[in-house]
Write the structure tokens for this entry.
Amino acid sequence: MLDRASQDPQADDSAARLRPVAFRGGGFAPAAGRYSGWIALAIVIALWQLAGSAGWVNPLFLPAPSAIAVAIYRLAISGALWHHLSWSIMRIGTGWVLGTTAGVIVGFAVGLSSLARGVGITFISALFPIPKIALLPLLILWLGIGEEPKIATIALGVFFSTAISVYSGVDAVPRNLIRMAQSFNVPFHLIVRRVIWPGALPSILAGFRITASVALLLVVSAEMIGAEYGIGAFVLQAGNLMQTDQLLAGVVILSLFGLAVGKLINLLEVRLLHWR
């Protein structure tokens, strides 16, 4: 009995060691609810409307959402909304395409060439922190008072962020894949197209998301300084006239525009990054 009693604790320890352990390596995978963001936004707007309707907030300083919606409707009916929006879209589109094209080319050059990396990173590091809107007066002196300086300001702001995201993406491509392709004597242009481009694409698209916001910020700033038409000029004019409902209508339009651009980039990511 004593011998059996002395063996039982060992059997219990073995059973405890063999007990299956729950999987603990699930990682972190935060997933946003499909409607949670919209529900939160609706609650905030409802509270805002309640505060405006109850007279808790002076409508001159913070108009109710219903007043802003009426202002947007009147702007759309009069055609002023589409006129200002078309000017802003033209400036953003042209500046973003020019800056992105140059940024992708320079980013790939910096990522693939030692000479371009040595020269390019120095210039990018020195010029990237400069607020591009501060260069607008100088660009007006160089390019005149037309649309060129505004587009150039947007293009400069987009260029540096794009170049940084592109060469960072190229650097993040696993080197063993590149070496494996080189060991099979794959030509350089095919390595770039089949290995480096897909590997760098997530970083490039993330850069697109950032540069779209940068372009939106810069177009509003540039239009406030030196434009007659555009959402930024409209917001400034409404602020000078204390038409706060129209001012916030312009802000809401900018927000909706940014939201639409974000959705467009999401669709682009789903289409181009389906292999992930």
Summary: The mean pLDDT is 86.
